[in-house]
Specification:
single chain; about 140 residues; alpha+beta; CBS domain Like; Uridine Diphospho-n-acetylenolpyruvylglucosamine Reductase, domain 3; 2 domains; five-stranded antiparallel beta sheet; three-stranded mixed beta sheet; about 30% strand
């Protein structure tokens, strides 16, 4: 096993994988404790997004409460528009919910920011370095 410090750049991690010819690296903290594990798959997903093997169905929407739904930022905007009857015209059909929210806010979103769409509110719930991970959709009617 090879140990790496936290915060190492993806390019450098790929070089480590190539150099040592191993499928995983252990992230070691300043005091010697183990912080985690990084695999080649982790790096690929960070670069290109989720990797699916076979025909796994993706669950984009999780019902939290009667009028509150957690939506994966990767969810296709057209599907979410139809599912929740948001009434968005097709010119707003960016690829994903995350793309739409970022477009509407005109900046990199942070948790808690929201937009109003008809009788619904879309609030950024969780973000990552790459963008929006998920949002909450609140039906206001």
């Amino acid at each position: 096993m090879e140990f790496i410090p936290p915060g190492k750049h993806i390019h450098d991690l790929l070089l480590e994988f190539e150099h040592h010819k191993i499928p995983m690296l252990i992230v070691q903290g300043k005091r010697g404790g183990i912080l985690g594990l990084v695999t080649v798959d982790d790096i690929l997903e960070e670069i290109v997004g989720p990797i699916f093997i076979g025909s796994r169905k993706i669950e984009y929407v999780k019902k939290i409460h009667d009028r509150l739904f957690r939506i994966d930022g990767r969810a296709p905007l057209g599907q979410i528009n139809k599912l929740f009857d948001l009434g968005l015209p097709e010119e707003y059909y960016l690829d994903t919910v995350a793309d739409f929210v970022k477009y509407m806010l005109q900046k990199k979103p942070v948790g808690g920011e929201s937009i109003e769409i008809g009788n619904s509110t879309i609030m950024v719930h969780e973000t990552t370095v790459r963008g929006i991970k998920n949002v909450n959709l609140i039906k206001n009617d």
